[in-house]
Amino acid sequence: MGLISDMLPSLGIKCDRRSYEVLLKAQVAARDFYEIEALVEDMAANKIDLSARAAFFCLKGALQVQEFGQALKYFRILKGFWEAQKASESLVPQATMLSLVELACQKKQLAQLLCMFQGLPIPEKVHDAMLEACVESHDIEMAKSIECIARAQRETLSDSTYSLLIKAMARRPASASAIIEEVLKREGSAVSPILAMAIVEFCTGTSNMAIAVRLLQKMKPHQVNVITAFIWFFIGIESYQKACDVYENYMEPVCSHAAGIQSMDANLQQSIIDSAVLCGRTPLAERLVAAPRYESMACLSLIACAGEAVWSCISLVERWNAVISYWVVLVM
Length: 332
Fold this sequence. Notes:
The protein is mainly alpha-helical. The protein is built from 20 helices and no strands.
């Protein structure tokens, strides 16, 4: 291609805009940003303006070599073309926008890129990628700016976006609670596992039982990981009666009793037994103790986990008395 390009002047032929587009595309394939810049300079010398297609190839080349300044420059040129055409479709492919966001995060220039995104149609996954960066950096103000852009483009946010907003604003409980309230007031009971887990995680960090109970009542979970998160939450705040309720009402119906017990995390199973013992749910404790894995080691397992954090607010003497009292009943 280089030889052909060099031969054109001797034939009285000059490269036009389309010729440069082909050459730029070839250099992107070769991952040679030095040659891309040389071609851009040659276009300027020949008074040929960059087309949208040429600017896109330059953007891809800049992303390949991690040149954020150059990438932003060509993205700005593309935005100009998009605004002039008053187009409704996406400015660049989603994969390219994700690469641009990733590079901006690496260079700590996400705020600058966010300003460039104003007024553009941004794919949902790009919003989520930026919010993930906010979660990692604990940048609440940036997350709120991204939320504004997302809400300006779509009537309802996706569950993945909601979950990331809640995580990003975890250090500002009032803001996170407002988002959760919006979720809880939605019509229907559909709440994705990823969103449910984010809300339960928030409730765990703030010991907010009211929100956890409302979410439980709204979605009536059937996913094992979500049910498990609810059980751990209630055990963590020492609401043992509620933890047992969640197990009996949601965990047991998901699968057969034996299969449910065998697939359950050992620590969780032990903690449910402990909870049942402490709140007087003897039948539940008996069912779990009767499982094959607990036939010979039930008492030792209970004593071994007696020092876990879920018992932290109960004195050692009270704990021991409660365990002995109920286990005497079970064993006899």
